[in-house]
Amino acid sequence: METATTIPNDILQQAERLKRGTAGVIPEGGLEEKLWKARQENRPLRIKLGLDPTAPDIHLGFAVVLRKLRQFQDLGHQVVIIVGDYTALIGDPSGRSTTRPMLSQEEIAANARTYVEQLARILDRERTEVRFNSEWLGRLTFADVVHLAAKMTLAQVLQREDFANRYAQGLPIGLHELLYPLAQAYDSVVIKADIEMGGLDQTFNILAGRDLQREMGQEPQVALFMPLLVGLDGVKKMSKSLGNYVGITEPPLDMYGKLMSISDAMMRDYFVLCTDVPLEEIEELLQRASKGEINPKDVKRRLAREIVAIYHGAKAAEEADIEWNRVHAGGELPSDVPEIVVGSEQAREGRIWICRLLVAAGIAKSNNEARRLVEQGGVELDGKRVQDVNAEFDMAALEGKLLRVGARRFVRIRTG
Length: 416
Prior knowledge:
The protein has 18 helices and 13 strands. The protein has a 6-stranded mixed sheet with strand order 1-6-5-2-3-4, sandwiched between helices. Strands 7-13-12-9-10 form a 5-stranded mixed sheet, with no helix packed on it. About 1% of the residues have low confidence. α4 links the parallel β3 and β4. It is an alpha/beta fold. The longest helix has 17 residues. The N and C termini lie far apart (75 Å). It folds into 3 domains: 223 residues, HUPs (Rossmann fold, 3-Layer(aba) Sandwich); 77 residues, Tyrosyl-Transfer RNA Synthetase; 77 residues, RNA-binding S4 domain (Structural Genomics Hypothetical 15.5 Kd Protein In mrcA-pckA Intergenic Region, Chain A, Roll). The relative contact order is 0.09.
């Protein structure tokens, strides 16, 4: 490879843009060298992202990686998505304290189909190659697997923190789990990956790809790591299963409202990872907010508009901003409060329990969830907070009443 001193300025600038928001690049300077070599050879780089089709749903956390891939595509490079329909039979043990359950072939196939449809919302389909690793892993003989396994030692595998911890605690480690990093590494060899992207939890697996490529006579891939986006709760990574997510297909106002609920301390990461606002402008906005020169809420409104505009357009973002401000700053009702009919069969002797009402209105999925909402102080009926989880209301008196939960959910009750 060329030395860093010979790399043109425009290539260095490309690398700088691509490294925005990343959690690290291995080796240092490797991205610049790959970009420069690709130009010299007049070919696109092959950028790999491996996905196990276990829970297909694109939210802002997942979109962080996809948007980075799109940046590579916009520079003329080729994205290769590896749908791990075969490695999902093993289950990625990264970060696990127990063996991950294996998926059935039917579950894998259904999830994989959904992934391909969703990826096109962000990626350029023309520059996206979608491969299923059953194409090559499914054809390996037992002798082939033994030959590959000889290129990785048990000592190497046990360097992984999750494996090392489980081994030290006497917790079971399946032999099939030891094959996972080897299988992922072989994916890189087959598609001749120049760069592999992933979260920091994938460090061992991606570096294993570098080692295996080197062992098999290929130039090792560069590892480019993206941070995990913290969810709306400000504690755990964004996840649909945790309910702390913002889906990219959610209606503009719902997306906007969720983004307005994040803490001020989270704004920098959301700006950097989820928008294209220049870093200098982000820092200026946040500094002015910290000095009291501008209201932090106005900075957050800018953030929400930027993100909504990416997925729904500038007009929808502006309308969501106006509607949210009208309701929350002006104290007015939303312009389209849904009406929910609550049948008399939900009542007992003409009265209905508050938790049953929340479930019947579609606001809570269960009585336990409804109870938590009341206990958290987030339920209002006709402008009055409901504080007693055992409260009951006369059905006849509920007609036309406004039920509000939290800052964003409003329901007009109709009795029938």
